[in-house]
Amino acid sequence: MFKLVCGAGNEDTESVKRLVFVYALAGCKLFDLSARKEILDAAKDGSKLAGRSDVQYCVSIGIKGDKHISKAKIHNGKCIHCGNCFRNCPNDAIYSSIIIDEKKCIGCSICAQKCPTNAITMEEKDVNYREILPYMVQNGVEFLELHIMGHDKEDLAKKWQVINECRPKFASICIDRENFGNKEVLERIREMIKDREPYTTIVQADGVPMSGGSDDYKTTLQAVAMAEVIQNANLPVYIMLSGGTNSKTAELAKMCRINYWGIAIGSWARKIVKPYIAKDDFWENKEAQAKAIKITKELVESCK
């Protein structure tokens, strides 16, 4: 299973529509979306234009402290207008006038890392999950995913309870080891799945979140290593690789004998089509569409 990650924080409807369109035509059947009504509508529009009625959608939310629900904020008093932020933003969410488009910001924090004066902070922007998650399931979403890379266990418990109450086809846990080690990772997963039916849960082993900017083995190494941690625990879950995934992920996972259910690709998948789907005349430009679909098919095929 190949899952395209449009971005848990990506609120740019046109971008999502175009991404879903080209990847649906390339054979992708599962799309990861921000938990917003307009984003689900945009994704459905993209799949409809692609002539695909068999696609499925995953909606992602995060607990407090997780970067997937954060947005960048520039503090003008500290900003020296060096341009590092907008030159390095992978999602073109920052303009030369030092304005951040929150709808395009996915919370990757690259801009903050590149800022020489610490003028950029990452601030959380949550959703009304009690309202939006039931709406999503009622409107055809079969996967609900919770990013749990934070220390607020109370927020985790509340959001996980709502996901379980919604009774999606699959509940997904996205976790990495940035904030805690293997022992706590497994303890969290075991606690979360203890009352769930076997193999109704997906664990998305997020090697290094939002790090798939290159197409090499080193970039995807931690995704495979994280999956191995989950596999070795013999839990009744499906494993999905993520976090630094690219066209090398499936090959490396097979070499390491990882029994994965799917591969979720975000940063790399969006990067390779960006020159084409960003064109102003994309919907009329059949050449750009054809080139985008060609390279997306190659990526989807590499993940089998």
Summary of the model, kept short:
The protein has eleven helices and twelve strands.
Name the CATH superfamily classification of the largest domain: Aldolase class I
CATH topology of the largest domain: TIM Barrel
Give the CA-CA distance, first to last residue: 7 Å
Unreliable parts: none
Q: What top-tier CATH class of the largest domain fits best?
A: Alpha Beta
Mean residue pLDDT: 95
| Coarse structural class | alpha/beta
The major beta sheet can be summarized as:
8 strands, parallel, barrel
Number of separate structural domains: 2
Radius of gyration in whole Å, from Cα? Answer: 18 Å
**Tally of helical segments:** 11
Shape: globular
The sequence of SSEs as H and E is EHEHEEHEEHEHEHEHEHEHEHH
Task: Estimate the helix proportion, in percent.
Answer: 40-55%
In the CATH hierarchy, the architecture of the largest domain is Alpha-Beta Barrel
Number of strands: 12
Name the strands of the widest sheet in spatial order: 1-2-3-8-9-10-11-12
What percent of residues are in strands? 15-25%
What does this 3D model show about the protein?
This protein has 304 residues and is an alpha/beta fold. The protein has two domains: 239 residues, Alpha-Beta Barrel (TIM Barrel), CATH 3.20.20; 56 residues, Alpha-Beta Plaits. It has eleven helices and twelve strands. An eight-stranded parallel β-barrel has the order 1-2-3-8-9-10-11-12, surrounded by seven helices. The longest helix has 17 residues. It starts with a strand and ends with a helix. The model has no long low-confidence stretch (mean pLDDT 95).
